[in-house]
Specification:
The complex is a heterodimer.
Chain A: H1 2-5, H2 9-18, H3 20-38, H4 45-69, E1 80-82, E2 87-89, H5 91-114, H6 121-140, H7 144-162, H8 169-200, H9 205-212, H10 219-236, H11 245-252, H12 255-280, H13 291-311, H14 316-336, H15 343-377, H16 389-392, H17 394-408, H18 414-428, H19 432-458, H20 473-488, H21 493-508
Antiparallel strand pairs in A: 1-2
Helix pairs in contact in A: 3-4, 3-6, 4-5, 4-6, 5-6, 5-12, 5-15, 5-20, 5-21, 6-7, 6-12, 7-8, 7-12, 8-9, 8-10, 8-11, 10-12, 11-12, 11-14, 12-14, 12-15, 13-14, 13-19, 14-15, 14-18, 14-19, 15-17, 15-18, 15-20, 15-21, 17-19, 17-20, 18-19
Chain B: H1 2-19, H2 25-46, E1 60-70, E2 73-81, H3 85-102, H4 111-130, H5 134-155, H6 160-187, H7 196-204, H8 216-234, H9 243-250, H10 253-278, H11 280-285, H12 287-306, H13 311-332, H14 335-366, E3 374-375, H15 382-396, H16 402-415, H17 423-449, E4 454-455, H18 466-484, H19 487-501
Antiparallel strand pairs in B: 1-2, 3-4
Classes of the chains: A mainly alpha, B mainly alpha.
């Protein structure tokens, strides 16, 4: 705590300005609390949702503004270091904040309809906003201490969100599973951090990097520590070997929460992974700790397992859960391939992984929100239950087709370019085998994604679809917006990849 | 800008028809589809021949706009025309309008979606034939598949879902193989854009380097093989043709017209543009195996057609046979071989369109396509039947019809080929295919059209409505005009294909 008190008044203003997106999110969470405590019995669902969206949108606006203005980037004086270096505001942090806030905005808009009949929606919105705040902190953490604290801050509301439907067995069970595996992986991460501290004597990422050259006999301790930190990242990103919670949690959780976890929470895990490994552990490669190979193997296993398991599912939501694991595998390529050496190729491949997470944020969130809409209609969960939905809800079904084809990497939407740039970057970095596995699993994925499109558009309805008369405004708006953005990210991919590459390059400078 | 306007008008027409109410959609779609025809006719009138677009000839109506830069490569909006692509654009616009009219009778469900998808497919087809940047081309190439998938899957026959999925999976896997092959080639080249002319000229200058441990000679062969496999599925040739009969039999008539008339030409167009323009030396290396594939497609496709009972299957398999001729013309790599192959693409587009439409008219009236179920139709539907006979003769290569010109050019070209060993033998065997074509077409004609009237199904046979017959007349007129004056297209085709001969140091005429 002493860190916070060191600053003078001007420093405070400066810190708040630099961290404005995160501060805005936290304040909105508190405002939602405030509204609820002033009117504990009033079910102000609309007011709460609009307040929350105003908060996430303004945070998104500020993040984009800072990105465009060059705040914290090499062109404008470089990264802004706050609180004795524990927090760092740079392009990477702002880019990921833009992902979290975009996803949160879509999820809140959808939740307005999804939790329409909920007794106390305020707790949902505030949990979501606080989790987003913590993710914003994860993206700017520059010390293993802040990494751990912010990761826990993000995880705790997430457990509650998964178990939010208190009367639903699946939801509670999912929350418990998520919590148990989360607790274990937190312990692993904390232990790994302590080992790294034991070997290097510092928690600040740049200091760790500086010390690694002189660890001497402790390089074994450091190696074990690094592997354990990698385990923490694997948990948060739902990658092998800490992926077990993901299918259960995504399936049992309310669909908007699944959307939030599988898009934003995964991206937050990667934000931490990219910064910690690129900044702190890069020199460890020189003393024989090849974490690149570790991530490469994890990427292969994650891609193969996620995609093959997705192909065998009978329920759409569970299929998407496994596909989300598969996509974690693609993004892991971005972690594995930054060990090649040349900073230009490193920046390209890591920027590509970031851009993929950005596109993924929209297409995957959209897909889960479509499922939220189907859950609200009460149609059913399997592929057969989805049959013929296009007749009753053509616009939403069209958007879902866009999400599916984009996730599969058909070259009509943003998902194609981001995957392509990622694979090309991996080839340039010498990791052609990762690109090969990625391309093959990506081709396989078309099989199970197209099953959804087939059910929606080609099959005749098997169940009574009369319930689908109403068009929930918030849900529809969120799904359509996500669909439009997914389409526009094909012609408009240039600014995204350029921003991501510039942000990544700053880490390797 | 004229090509952009053509594409924009076609896309806008598609959107307009999507939004239109069902009862106006057919006429509106036809009216709007006249605009692209007008556009393509204007292109024809303003076109001046100037060589091959890829090998350094003049590119008509071209526009180059940077799109985005990834991993050191510039992606561009790059469109233009030459003597190879212009006839195909004209064919596309012409055939789409006629297919739309031929859909008025059979399509009575979800009309605005049907006609919207037809126009959307037309727009993407124009894009395929005009794009000169690989990425742009690939986006259009894949974008054609999606409308086709829905057109077969929603409006098709009893086994439409199976046929649609099979079509989609086959062609997508083929695209992936082709994509990987082409990417390996580009990575081995010192180019910084995906412009097809740049890549072709760089290859022609012998600048191909190594791809990792693959030496450049092997790389070129691997890339050629991968691209050939990818495009061969699209053409299709034996043994990767099995998706075609399923797709054709299940697809509604107008969709079959587009599939046979234009979509198959995407495969041969791409073979000509990529394999035979970019890697002519490798084409020479593979000449014998590819010629064998071509001849087997001709003979085996025709023999399969001989064994069918379903009129549509007969025409479908005969397409495999006809595309074998096109492939033979490409392998020959002579002035008349390449030119004849390109001309045959147009001729076959018109003739197979005519045949499918005529079979569709008969099916609309009789509700059967089985040869054994009907006989003596000539008495009841004289106009449609005589046009079908004329189409069959065009297929058999009756002089003064377009099919004769195309096949004659190909045989002349392949007989004197210096690239292909044993060229006269291959040519002679392929020519024998014509005899089989005559055999199965005459058998089918005799069985269904002539003899005493008999129809197994109880269906009132009325005269075909005028809007069923009008497109047939228009197509027949076009076939005769091109047969009498092949130079209408052949001059510009020759102008664009002759420069290719210089790539192999000039061949025999």
């Amino acid at each position: 705590m002493s860190l916070l008190l060191q600053g003078t008044a001007t420093d405070w203003v400066f810190s708040v300005r630099a961290l404005l997106p995160v501060v805005l999110l936290a304040l909105t969470g508190l405002v939602v609390f405030g509204i609820n405590s002033l009117r504990p019995d009033g079910r102000d669902n609309k007011l709460l949702a609009l307040t929350s969206i105003a908060g996430t949108l303004s945070a998104l606006g500020v993040a984009i503004w800072y990105l465009l203005a060059g705040t914290g980037q090499p062109t404008h004086g470089g990264a802004i270091s706050l609180f004795s270096g524990a927090i760092i505001v740079d392009g990477l942090g702002l880019f990921f904040t833009a992902i979290f806030t975009s996803v949160a905005t879509l999820v809140i808009a959808a939740s307005y309809d999804y939790f329409e009949t909920d007794a106390n929606p305020a707790s949902f919105y505030s949990l979501l906003l606080l989790a987003t705040t913590a993710m914003g902190l994860m993206a700017v953490s520059n010390s293993l201490a802040t990494v751990f604290v912010s990761l826990e801050m993000a995880s705790l509301p997430s457990y509650a969100l998964v178990a939010y439907l208190k009367d639903n067995r699946g939801s509670v069970e999912a929350g418990l599973k998520y919590f148990l595996i989360g607790a274990v992986s937190s312990a692993v991460l904390a232990f790994g951090i302590s080992l790294v501290y034991a070997a290097t004597g510092s928690l600040l990422l740049p200091d760790i990097a500086a010390q690694i050259g002189s660890v001497g006999d402790l390089n074994g301790v450091l190696g074990v520590g690094i592997v354990m930190v990698a385990g923490g990242v694997a948990f948060k990103t739902a990658s092998v070997p800490f992926h077990f919670w993901a299918p259960e949690a995504y399936e049992g959780a309310p669909a908007p929460v699944s959307a939030f976890l599988s898009s934003a929470s995964k991206a937050a895990g990667f934000a931490v992974g990219f910064r910690v490994f690129a900044t702190a552990f890069q020199p460890a490669l020189d003393i024989g700790i090849d974490w690149g190979l570790l991530f490469g193997i994890l990427a292969v296993v994650t891609m193969v397992l996620g995609n093959f398991a997705a192909a065998t599912q009978t329920e759409v939501k569970r299929m998407l859960a496994y596909s989300s694991i598969g996509h974690a595998g693609y993004a892991l390529i971005g972690l594995a391939a930054i060990t090649a050496g040349a900073s230009a190729t490193n920046a390209t491949v890591m920027g590509a992984a970031m851009a993929h997470l950005f596109v993924y944020g929209f297409m995957n969130t959209g897909a889960f929100l479509f499922i939220a809409m189907v859950e609200r209609w009460g149609v059913g969960r399997t592929f057969e239950d989805y049959a013929g939905l296009a007749e009753r809800a053509p616009m939403a079904s069209l958007a879902m087709a866009v999400f599916m084809f984009s996730l599969a990497g058909l070259p009509l939407f943003g998902g194609f370019l981001s995957k392509y740039v990622l694979f090309l970057g991996a080839i340039n970095a010498g990791f052609w085998w990762l690109a090969a596995v990625g391309a093959v699993t990506s081709a396989l994925s078309l099989f199970y994604y197209s099953r959804v499109v087939k059910a929606l558009w080609l099959e005749d309805a098997t169940t009574d679809l009369d319930a689908i008369g109403d068009a929930p405004t918030g849900l529809y708006a969120a799904v359509i917006v996500a669909g439009v953005v997914t389409v526009l990210l094909l012609p408009g991919f240039g600014p995204v990849i350029e921003t991501a590459e510039a942000a990544a390059a700053a880490l390797f400078a | 800008m004229i090509l952009e306007a053509l594409l924009a008008v076609t896309f806008a027409a598609a959107l307009l028809v999507f939004a239109a109410p069902d009862e106006y959609a057919p006429k509106l779609a036809f009216g709007l589809s006249l605009l692209p025809i007008a556009g393509s006719l204007y292109l024809w009138s303003a076109f001046e021949t100037g060589g091959n677009a890829l090998t350094g000839g003049e590119i008509a109506f071209n526009t180059v706009v940077p799109w985005l830069e990834v991993a050191g490569y510039q992606l561009q909006w790059y469109v233009g025309l030459d003597g190879i692509s212009l006839p195909l654009v004209i064919l596309t616009t012409f055939l789409t309008s006629l297919a739309i009219v031929s859909a008025w009778t059979p399509i009575d469900d979800r009309k605005s979606q049907f006609y919207g998808l037809m126009l959307l497919m037309e727009a993407n087809l124009i894009g395929v034939f005009t794009a000169l940047d690989f990425f742009l081309w690939f986006v259009f190439w894949e974008a054609v598949l999606v409308p086709m998938y829905f057109l077969i899957g929603i409006w098709g026959g009893p086994r439409r879902k199976y046929a649609a999925i099979k079509f989609f999976v086959y062609t997508n896997i083929a695209s992936l193989v082709m994509f990987i092959g082409f990417m390996m080639l580009v990575i081995g080249l010192p180019v910084n854009s995906f412009g097809l002319p740049e890549i072709t000229q760089s290859l022609a200058a012998g600048e191909l380097g190594n791809f990792f441990w693959l030496p450049s000679e092997t790389l070129a062969l691997v890339a050629f093989a991968a691209m050939f496999i990818g495009f061969a599925v699209k053409v299709p040739v034996v043994p990767v043709h099995t998706w075609l009969p399923d797709a054709h039999v299940e697809a509604p008539t107008p969709v079959s017209v587009m599939l046979a008339g234009v979509l198959l030409k995407m495969g041969t167009y791409a073979l000509l543009r990529f394999n035979y323009t970019m890697l002519p030396a490798q084409a020479e290396y593979f000449a014998v195996p590819i010629a064998i594939i071509a001849v087997v497609s001709v003979i085996y496709g025709a023999m399969l057609a001989l064994a069918q009972e379903d009129l549509k299957r007969i025409v479908a398999y005969s397409s495999v046979s006809s595309m074998g001729y096109v492939l033979l013309g490409l392998v020959a790599f002579t002035e008349f071989g390449l030119g004849g192959a390109t001309f045959q693409m147009i001729a076959h587009g018109l003739i197979s369109g005519l045949m499918f439409m005529a079979v569709g008219v008969i099916y609309n009236a009789t509700h059967t396509r089985l040869v054994g179920d009907m006989s003596g139709l000539a008495d009841r539907m004289p106009i449609a039947v005589w046009i079908l006979v004329a189409g069959a003769f065009a297929y058999m290569g009756l002089p003064l019809m377009a099919g004769f010109a195309g096949e004659f050019f190909i045989f002349v070209g392949s007989f004197g080929s210096t690239v292909l060993p044993y060229a006269p033998v291959f040519t002679a065997v392929a020519m024998f295919g014509i005899v089989i074509v005559a055999g199965y077409l005459l058998r089918a004609m005799q069985g269904t059209l002539f003899g005493p009237f008999n129809l197994e199904t109880d269906y009132d046979l009325d005269r075909a409505p005028i809007h069923d017959v009008a497109p047939l007349v228009a197509l027949l007129a076009a076939i005769i005009v091109l047969g009498v004056v092949p130079s209408l297209f052949f001059d510009m085709i020759r102008d664009a294909t002759v420069p290719l001969l210089e790539l192999l140091g000039g061949g025999a005429p």
